[in-house]
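Obj.: predict assembly geometry.
Materials: sequence records (below).
Method: joint structure prediction, all chains together.
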Amino acid sequence: MEPSTVDLRALMEPSSVAVVGASSTPGKTGYIILKGMMDHGYKGRIYPINPKESEILGLRAFQNVNAISDPVDLVVIAVPFRGVKDVIKDSVENRAKFGLIVTAGFSEIGDLGANEEREITEIARNGGMRLLGPNSIGMVNKSVDLVISIVPFKTWKNGGISVVAQTGIFAGALAANVIDTQNVGLGKSIDIGNRCDLTEQPLLEYFAEDEHTNVVGLHMEGIREGRSLLEASKKVSLKKPIVVLKTGRSEVGAKAAASHTGSLAGDDIVADAAFRQAGLIRANTLQEMIDWLKVFDYQPTPKSGRVGIVTLSGALGVIASDMASNVGMKLAEIEDSTKNEIQKEIMPAWPVRNPADIWVSLGLEPERSHRIALKKMIEDPNVDSLIVLLLALQPARCDMAKVFKEAVDAAPSKPIVAGMMGAKEIEQEWFDALEGIGIPSYKGSDCAERATSAMGALTTYGSILQSKRQS
Amino acid sequence: MEPSTVDLRALMEPSSVAVVGASSTPGKTGYIILKGMMDHGYKGRIYPINPKESEILGLRAFQNVNAISDPVDLVVIAVPFRGVKDVIKDSVENRAKFGLIVTAGFSEIGDLGANEEREITEIARNGGMRLLGPNSIGMVNKSVDLVISIVPFKTWKNGGISVVAQTGIFAGALAANVIDTQNVGLGKSIDIGNRCDLTEQPLLEYFAEDEHTNVVGLHMEGIREGRSLLEASKKVSLKKPIVVLKTGRSEVGAKAAASHTGSLAGDDIVADAAFRQAGLIRANTLQEMIDWLKVFDYQPTPKSGRVGIVTLSGALGVIASDMASNVGMKLAEIEDSTKNEIQKEIMPAWPVRNPADIWVSLGLEPERSHRIALKKMIEDPNVDSLIVLLLALQPARCDMAKVFKEAVDAAPSKPIVAGMMGAKEIEQEWFDALEGIGIPSYKGSDCAERATSAMGALTTYGSILQSKRQS
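Observations (raw structure tokens):
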């Protein structure tokens, strides 16, 4: 049985880390990990472990973990499969607190690997050491500048998003993608791999108390120790929103998951209901997960689901309207005064509804027409949240940050998201300007869907909080 | 009643175009349209019409349409609402063949506009002139370098995709987005606006016979003359695949559509069934539509739905597997010889399945391992199509065009698509390289979903063709 809480401080904020398999040969995993830790500025003690070297990258190297006199907080294990067991034994002798196994070839491969995985887990647990992995790509805690990764990263942006994932995709390619294309930062990113010992639960509990975490992302291919996970989620989700992405949904996907991280995928519909009960917000795709994490990191939760939409494109307004009701919102019934003021100021003789389609104002003082439409809509007492859909076209170009800033100031407690589609250069200009002032922005041909879906997730979390606090 | 076919040559390939409301004042709609036609190199005769000018942009201007001695093929009408009726009358007097009305304020606004719309339509039809619009953003036929648009475009890329849309979003912002971010080109893009006279049907029929059109995109907010549209689609879809995006799905979305293009949205489930029967392939989002148009433009149709997947990321493999069965494919049961050869050559001791997860080969000769995995998988007799999911990370960097070229050469009749996620720079490098050799590519965090969905659309069209040809 998993104890209800594990103190993860020595794992997450270690004062010393041993890297077993450390190497001075560029390209080798043991080099990439060690070099990365040093380059990203980790300030604790680092012990490279390699029986063939006395010094690696300028640091004194040790023969093995038990050659280190003091107990090590965290042992990173990056040796070939056959060597892992001995490293665990050495680490137990050192009274090391945590092990992070990046080596693969365990339960994801079949019975042989599964047996070995059980054996090393038992040795560690009996010796008082807890394990993360195996088959983990690494872990990052930017709060203490700790970046342990078998994939090299030149930069890593700190921020309020903490992710625990069952696969390296998050600490690897997805992190790279987020770092390159988003303004938000992943403060923590932990790949728990095959979960031979530590599961998601203690990490969620750690994030709940972490002052730097605004929102938690959870990726799973299969569920292990489901009941305790859901119990923990119920508590954690009252403090921090948790966005979950569970893949391995279909039967074939589940088979693929078994050979990827040794997971049993379980019944997806059951999972869906259980997630909802535990207050988890379920994303369907990786992109949706990033989109939602961003909106939670940036924006307040709306009072309820009455959404206002301002759009320069009637077509995008239709798409957002279509989607709103499927994601827990309804179009706000705006006041006549709101309609009349927008109409009078920017498009006389043109009817104003919600969505407020301001297409006919195109080319005529775009800054003024956007500013008036956004401000009037968000000030309407029946509007809880605002979706703005922009056409990134030359005749609409203006200082969008200024336009949105005025809407934010008019109603700081109401969340706003923006979508933008059109010329790439203008899309990017507005994306940077708006994300720079904390407006979650979605660009490209699916901007309306993504903006609406993100606002829907925020709205769902608001209703979860309300129902939980009442019960 | 709509006649079953209309000869659209004078509309699509006009030898003369009058622009009513033409202006020499930059920024004005009549300037943007005229300047755009000249800049994009239209070679037919252009008649600027403006009672106050004798010359506009170096061209002789006319007082009104009936001052032109020969009948004009196409009259573009860009005057204020109140002036439209007189222009129609003048055009009928000139015996003009087609009118394209960009002016808005008709049936999308309410009863008053709807009455006016009916009236001008009657005048035109009685005078033997057919109308496109009103409330149209324009039309493009790049085969004759004709770009008529109220939104200025610096460039326009020719290509095998022809689009007919009920809203300016396609000829405007979406076209800008496609031009900036995709390698494919929109050869034709027609905004039919409120459809007062000409509907989608004759345009579909024109595209069916057009040698430059490989695939047709159809956007609708509402359906008009549904029966004849579906009958036409049934015939056209045997010649060219038709991807349809119908928005205005929900009740609220339908309301928004009514005020956008004056459409009645109709029952969405009925529409869905009717589309399927007519051989239309229905996309759910704008992005999906672009993704699918691209795959049809580039790739052959697979024999059946047995898909092979090669991935450097187990997680992306799981996502693609999950999705495959929902979009009409099944994972191919690959031969033992395929498995053994991939295993032997690139990852000894690691089991190979479909999806073939080649993660453990990361960093070890990426070009070689990708090349062998792709080639062996696509050569397998049980594989009809191939999805490749790449991790855009430094250790995997290699000449991807070369890798894919070899797979294409090994089985030219089997379609391939690629997804790529990771560092932005490498994503873009591979995207450009692969699209350059005709491999539809999808980059970013939803690459696995998008690649799988595109291959699903291609597979669906294959099965439509088979069942139709049998019946």
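Conclusions so far: The longest helix of chain A spans residues 447-470.
To do: check interface contacts against the pulldown list.
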